[in-house]
Amino acid sequence: MINIRKLESELWESADLLRAGSKLTSNQYCMPVLGLIFLRYAYSRFKLVEAEILKDRPVRNGQVLPVEESDFVSRSALFLPREAQYAYLVDLPENIAAAGLTNRNGQVMNSLGEVVNNAMELVEEQSEQLSGVLPKDYTMFSDELLAELLRIFNNSALDDVGGDVIGRIYEYFLNKFAKNIAQDDGVFFTPKSLVKMIVNILEPREGILLDPACGSGGMFVQTGDFVEHAGMLANNTMTFYGQEKVEYNAQLCLMNLAVHGLSGVIKSGDEANTFYHDAHNLDGCCDYVMANPPFNVDKVKAESAQNAGRLPFGMPTVNKNKEVSNANYLWISYFYSYLNEDGRAGFVMASSATDSQGKDKDIREKLVRTGHVDVMISAGNNFFYTKSLPCSLWFFDKGKKEELRDKVLFIDARNYYTVVDRTLNEWNEWQLKNLNAIVWLYRGEVDKYQELLSEYRQELGDQLSFPERAQQLEADLQSARAEAREAVAQAARKDKKRIEAEYQDTIQALEQKLTVAKEALWLTEKFGDGVYADIPGLCKAATLEEIEQKGFSLTPGAYVGVAPAEDDGVDFHERMTEIHKELLELQAESDRLMETISKNWEEMGL
């Protein structure tokens, strides 16, 4: 069993160490490294498909017929000429200039960078979708650094194509680069937990999916995973369309699709500026729309946007310069307009848009009155890699059940998340399922809720109730930590790190189980065996009449209220007295230290 997290971390550390030593910026380094991961994936998939083809290959004159390009096309895999195969590149001699290698145009190649560029061009010849997309600037690397990069990704663990290990590695690197590269045109990588939440609530199965601000393609990849998990082939049931103004991001998207074995039509550049172009002519045609558009964009030319259409509720406020100074409601209008009569949309939006005033409020009122606003979810700060602002997830459903037409489900999840590090939060796998479960119950889909409870029981064991299991795991974890401390304390110095590492695996496994138990408790304490209820501070199914009374605000916090405060058993006045005393003691200690420092300076003549 591959420890995928450990593998991701080790590969990143190795590659980033080389970047640091090369004096290249993350921006320069990002695309070439992702290109090598892509090439490694293509080779793994090539070898897997080649083995399948050779099983039933005809034999002539005692020789098995060689595989051909057409054999791979029928299996949705890239055929790789020998010079584009990863093993060929890894096994090249150190002195490329002396090897007499020629590129696809017959010219002699003098560096490893030229050889890798040639490999990328050969791959592009095999796929119209990849034409002009793959990086071909490998000559900026020294032969030594490039050879070391090739070696790093020549890890046998990456041959587990069935488990999509390389897809995970690619996404991990994309994520890490996103943290290091601040994009002027908005966040180009939407955190996976936000994307998963959107996909899970929309439940795409078949039809047309448009992302008119597609960035690096996360919506397509997660949709592909969702469809495949449901037992279908995404390329057979879904048609992916994307628009992305920034061409660099569109390249990432096409590579991301290819790494995950998906195909799509992605347009980029000026013709893909969604404010002015419906690049795929999909207005009113989409089964699903998903997006994380850039928030609060200003200086959008009002006349050009008006002429481009897709504004069923009218234009937002236009300033004296004949510009839309905040384009949030342009995006919101587009997402609604692109849907067909049963279509669903899910998108990320700045929190301020849920109750902005002026023309925005007029548009929001018309939108609410359609009965097609389905779910609104508030997310807290630090969900993005390059911005700390809070956001909301909006969901439309034109095929909403009749009994839900006059309702909107509001979920305030600002206090429900997992801390990844000081600057980043996310919803873990079970938190995503729990929030999704609230939507299922609101929609009357109790069977899905029951399936989730079964999943929890399978993960935790059926013999104990969720509270009992959580209690037991808490006790087991405390015992394991105490045992680990004692074992490390008694061990010889040379053995301490090894023993600590051995116990750490056990402790981490218990921590993960305890997390699952706590999430099972969180859900069942609120909704039992599967009955939707408005939970103060968390969720509320509000009627259109209630929304009208709130001035057509779509801010979840305005409806769910505040969760009842839990009594922590601490006497407030007693604790405040203790804190005051501690502060006085710290202040006195600070004064003593300052006095000592001043004396030392005087003695040194400063």
What would you note in describing this structure?
A hairpin with a 2-residue loop joins strand 1 (59-60) and strand 2. The longest helix has 32 residues, at 496-527. Mean pLDDT is 88; it is low at 182-188. The chain has 606 residues and is an alpha/beta fold. The protein is 49% helix and 12% strand.
What brief labels describe this structure?
alpha/beta; Rossmann fold; 606 residues; 21 helices; 3 domains; Ferritin; two-stranded antiparallel ribbon
- The mean pLDDT is 88
Radius of gyration from CA coordinates: 28 Å
Question: What is the topology, as strand order, of the major beta sheet?
Answer: 5-4-3-6-9-11-10-12-15
**CATH class term of the largest domain:** Alpha Beta
DSSP strand tally:
15
The share of residues in helices is 40-55%
- How big a fraction of the residues is strand? 5-15%
Q: How many structural domains?
A: 3
The CATH architecture assignment of the largest domain turns out to be: 3-Layer(aba) Sandwich
Per CATH, the superfamily of the largest domain is Vaccinia Virus protein VP39
Biggest beta-sheet profile = 9 strands, mixed
For the termini, the CA-CA separation is 63 Å
